[in-house]
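Quality-control log, excerpt.
Job 1 of 2 completed; input and output follow.
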Amino acid sequence: MTALDTFLSQIAAHTQRGADPADCVEAIAPLMLALVEGANTFLQPQHFQSHPDHYARNLVYSAPDASMSIYTLVWSPGQWTPVHDHGSWGVVGVLEGLLEERSYVRISPDRGSDEGIDLVRGGIILLGRGAITSFVPNPDHIHITGVPANRPRAVSLHLYGRTMNDFNIYDVAAGTRRRISVAHNES
């Protein structure tokens, strides 16, 4: 049995639709540590695919009922996400390198509109090999993640509480957000 098989059986009860996101990440974060430590038992070379122009998303597992998905993200030097949120809870573990997360804080009330969104920069978290972090929606976890150009590649393992095929990106200067669809490499 691989570390992934063990992880999936351990988290099954926590990932059911309707489960409280904070309860999910509280229960799953310690289990993610074991998954990261056992990544060599299930990750294959295709899970480490990179892309020369942007970070790469490589599908590791997608639940048949769309209740969760797991990806490796490969970050070459200088590659960043746009400012975004997930619309989901999630747990992330770093397999290799040093991943940087820069947060944004919403200072305007959330009226459900895609305009009039005032964001200010927040803090920075540096996540080294073996680090585990998590997030929940509401309030939105708005951030940018990546690797500065002067650092080596990073690889992270991301568990989301849904199939992560779209999310909101923000234009900080314009005060807007829009939903985008995101592709991934099939593994």
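Job 2 of 2 completed; input and output follow.
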Amino acid sequence: MRESTQETTAPASASLYERLGGYDAIFAFAGAALKKGMQHPDIGHIWDHMPESSFNREHINFVDFLAAEWGGNVRYRGRDMVTAHRGMGLTDVHWNAMFDCLYACYEEYGLPEELQQEINASFEKFKPVVVGSPSLRSVVLDHPEMDVTKGMKSVGVVWPQRKSGQARE
């Protein structure tokens, strides 16, 4: 992300990745967003028991995901968004908290409104597979007979719900 005192030099036809300043800029932005997430009262608890090594892996996966999503020549090797978020129990409160953190980063980096909107749109399309899964813990508590190694589907909890005619994952 470019500082507010600098002008974006990439042409409008350039990818979002290029217009934001490339991998190093996205690396810094993602780190700032994750740090703000840790400090946010509604989502900070997510990192309560995460070791530094797991955080570092999460950060790099987030950067690679964003860089690939935004048009960079980067290969994302992490889990798909459904697998990564199934069982987390994320709600609209968590989703909105993430956007609080993004907006704070937009301000910190002096990001123009049009880039903010483009970034927001890139996140919004993933909301259906990020928000709404019951937490794995709540499913286990509701189904004490559950074999956790077989997953939530083993007790009839399927997320996300497939629409009729939609292929199985």
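Post-run check on job 2. Residues 2-8 have pLDDT under 50 and may be disordered.
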